[in-house]
Predict the structure.
Amino acid sequence: MDLSYGEEHEHFRQEVRDFLEKHREVAPPPWMGGIVAFKDEKVLSWQKLLVEHGYAARTIPREYGGFGAEPDPLKTVMIDEEFTRANVSRGIGGQGPDMLVPTLLEHGSEEQKRKWVAPTIRGGVVWCQGYSEPEAGSDLASLQTSAVEDGDEFVVNGHKIWTTTAQLSDMMFTLVRTDPKAKKHAGISYLLIPMDAPGIEVRPLYTMTEGAEFNEVFLTDVRVPKSNLVGRLGEGWKIGNTTLKHERNMLGSASQSTASLQRLIELMRQEKVNGSPVIADPVFRDRLTKLQARVLAMQYHSLRLLTHTLRGEWPGVAVMIVKLIGCQLNHDLARLAIDALGELGTLYKGSKHERDGGRWQFQYMLSLGLIIGGGTAQIQKNIIAERGLGLPREPKPASGGER
Amino acid sequence: MDFGLSDEQKLLQDTIRRYLEEKVPTTRVREIMQTETAHDPQVWQGLAELGITGLLIPEEHGGSGLGVLDAALAAEILAWGAAPVPFLGATVMAPSALLQAGTPSQQSEWLPRIATGETCFGCAATETFGLRGEAGVRVEGGRLYGQSLFAIDAGAADLFLVAAGPTDLALVPRSASGLAVELLRTVDRTRRVGELAFDGVEPAEWVGGPGGAGAAVERMLDAGRAVLASDTLGSCDRAIQMSVEYAMQRRQFGRVIGSFQAVKHMCSEMVAEIEPARSLAWYAAYAMDALPDEAATAVALAKSHLSDVGTDVVRTATEVHGGIGFTEEFDLQLWFKRVELNRQLLGGPELLRERAARLQGWEAA
Ligand SMILES: Cc1cc2nc3c(=O)[nH]c(=O)nc-3n(C[C@H](O)[C@H](O)[C@H](O)COP(=O)(O)OP(=O)(O)OC[C@H]3O[C@@H](n4cnc5c(N)ncnc54)[C@H](O)[C@@H]3O)c2cc1C
């Protein structure tokens, strides 16, 4: 056990600090870009700067538009730590850079990597994830959207739902059924679909946040070139699970909770009730320290997982709990912030007296959505029990179908 | 950066586990805990031979010169075995205080005896952070008066370190005249705490001289807390392990109960809570060795968090077992009670969170 980073790395940390000091003025606000990527000049030019300096797309090879650094997870951790501490935007993340890109790097063809990775990591191509369907949520493998081969193309018909940011996206990575006769999981393939293809209709679904974070996507005779198939026919379930693995790690990421906690502490110091700061109230303070312990636990847990990676060990059940616990934690952090604000905590969408731009109510609701999205809490518990602890699988027919 | 256990640390844990499995199975634990002092010198000697009693003692005094983290890792396994041993006071708290503030001659007198297991210290400092009722130790004319409650490892102790104030730590033999030791009956029968009553007791020595114990009391308490957090961790590991095993074997409605989702989810929740808590416990213990600025806060947060998680885990584990889990005869209750005592010793969750808040300057504007 050694939490010091050594001279080379401390030197690197200083570089990151210098960079932040020098450039933070031009950074977009930290909440922009994150999980919900969209095209904004400030975000795009910031992303460009980050890639050029190796603070985004760090280990992605140069031929695919990345920075091309040797993989060094410690440096990635340091970048995270320093950006979080400085409360500066980490650049564009979300479905494209965090989920699709690692999937393509693992399973994509050379041509696909060359074509899609570079614009995705720079924010030029925005992606959405077309997995869920009205009848295929937790039981994702029962999806019915079909893709039929026709010459050099697939013809796609079906209905996707809960497709986050579909209205803003250029492309959608999907799971489609290419072999209706094959067994449930074996008939699925992984396909990249341009959102401007004829036959695609996107209808917004308004969520409890009042925004339209997600959509329905209707596909009618949509023609997609065969070169957009990732992996081979029938490999979609396996490849789709690679994406899900990255999604869960992203959703449960400790640096987001750490940043939230930092802001929460500040808020409780500033906000006064009857003339004294909320943080001086023993009941609130107790709730805060309780959460602080949970955040610290996840922070050091991620270092523990990282150590497993560095040593080439499989962390087992320790990694399977991250999405479940991380998303719950983000929800609880927002809960305390709202309670600390009392009535002020209910103000929303630009109301007079609103604090922090209403972000805590938004986070409270969105994090609840993320407890459900990416595989519900109950499904995570199934996974932990069955794959992590070796308890018996569900009796048929659900076996193995969960996302 | 390496946030994981070394091969030596894993070996340490394996060694203790094997020793307990072989020499102190729960049938033996139950015999020992029925005795008045819950102390079996033979078991203790066995651990001494494995080097456990000397973990924190520097090599020049006959120990292995390891840190609080190593002690915490040992505690994890001792708790896993529900070991009835005075590890906390004798092996962790007393050496921590003596190393922090003991004079060279005190160190060379006592540390080697701790390392060999020949001497067992109990530690009495509850009144410095959580004074109850009429208790409290005061010094008059160099003698101790008053009462201290919940002295750690009072069953096995032949000497006590007694905090008589923030900078006064007295070393008092059990046989000192004017000292009455009465063991208290807690729910956990595997370890003994006691009441010490002082009626003009003359300490054999003051650690670091009178008023010279400075940071030693804090250090002793924080080392103890870090180790208690890990003790709870190890107890939870055992409770979860038993639950999963039981869920795979007990059948109802023609299926093993582990195939019922309600049972699966109870198991998943226990694991999902304990895994990050493990990382926190390691971090806090490591901070005691290597991160002095963060250590006190980290330890307060870790012990309070582990207590909360621990209480949930042992409750859930009991539910997984149904009626058998509630019986005296079944071993699970040993860990249920161990977690309970750990939770309150050296400060309960609320007290420690308040301490963490104060350490971070959160009490006022
Ligand atoms: C904010 C948000 C964003 C999303 N973004 C996307 C996206 O971009 N792309 C995309 O493809 N999808 C997206 N989703 C969809 C998400 O993945 C699904 O909502 C989720 O997998 C659950 O499916 P469902 O909604 O059909 O609920 P159901 O599967 O019907 O679940 C309903 C309830 O039943 C429980 N349940 C179901 N099966 C089991 C079981 N085997 N054991 C125990 N309990 C069970 C669930 O846990 C839940 O409590 C998003 C969802 C949300 C909320």
About this structure: The beta strands of chain A are 127-130, 146-150, 153-164, 171-177, 188-194, 200-205, 214-225, 229-230, 272-273, 276-277. Residues 127-233 of chain A form a domain with the Butyryl-CoA Dehydrogenase, subunit A; domain 2 fold (CATH 2.40.110.10). Chain A has three domains: 9-93, 127-233, 252-388.
